[in-house]
Specification:
alpha/beta; about 15% strand
Length: about 210
């Protein structure tokens, strides 16, 4: 059996290096990137079989990156490797197209196993997962939270705003005009009943678009 081609995405350099060393005997690690946008740029170039990514990443979070990746490259399998034990986040990860979800503190013993399971067309959820995690993504398939009301572009703008980027910086990242960025910002504020930039940031943190 050929070794699976794996692309890693995590914003911590030491972790990327550690995961590369962990996987390189059994997998072909074709790249390691630091954010969701770099992941989307690299994937078509390196053609991975499996992407291992974190939930919390700068510029574009893992959940939204996974959604975009699966639309562009539906054959690619996605495994989330994260510190986030929130069952709602795990459920959202599977709704975004994930085949696996495991925690970083068990990566040494589980990551290769998860890659093996996913390579065979199965799903993998860490045994450390609580019953609540499993119940959430099995029995509550549709989220009730407000982020579902935001468009993908609004979510992108919101994450970048919450990370402290200026409208000009956001416009450059998204290849749109600053006026369009402002339009999205104030449309979101009206749509969500939010009256300040601080409340927008709080909303982004609450719904895992950025880390708290």
């Amino acid at each position: 059996m050929t070794r699976p081609r794996v692309l890693l995405a995590d914003d911590h350099r030491l972790l990327r290096e550690a995961f590369t060393r962990l996987l390189e005997t059994d997998c072909e690690v074709v790249g390691a990137v630091a954010d969701g946008r770099a992941l989307l740029a690299a994937a078509p170039e390196v053609r991975p079989d499996i992407v291992v990514l974190d939930v919390a990443m700068p510029l574009l979070n893992g959940l939204d990156a996974a959604r975009q990746l699966k639309r562009a490259m539906p054959h690619v399998k996605v495994i989330f490797l994260t510190m986030n034990e929130d069952p709602e986040v795990a459920a959202e990860a599977f709704r975004a197209g994930a085949s696996g979800y495991l925690l970083k503190n068990s990566a040494a013993s589980e990551l290769l196993q998860a890659i093996g399971e996913v390579s065979r067309g199965r799903s993998y959820v860490t045994p450390l997962a609580t019953k609540g995690l499993v119940d959430t993504f099995l029995h509550r398939p549709e989220p009730s939270a407000k982020p579902a009301e935001l468009s993908p572009r609004q979510r992108e703008v919101l994450q970048l705003l919450a990370e402290g980027h200026t409208m000009k910086e956001i416009a450059r990242v998204l290849k749109i005009t600053p006026r369009t960025v402002a339009f999205h910002k104030y449309s979101m504020m009206e749509q969500l009943g939010i009256t300040s930039s601080a409340e927008l940031v709080q909303f982004a943190v609450k719904h895992h678009l950025v880390s708290g």
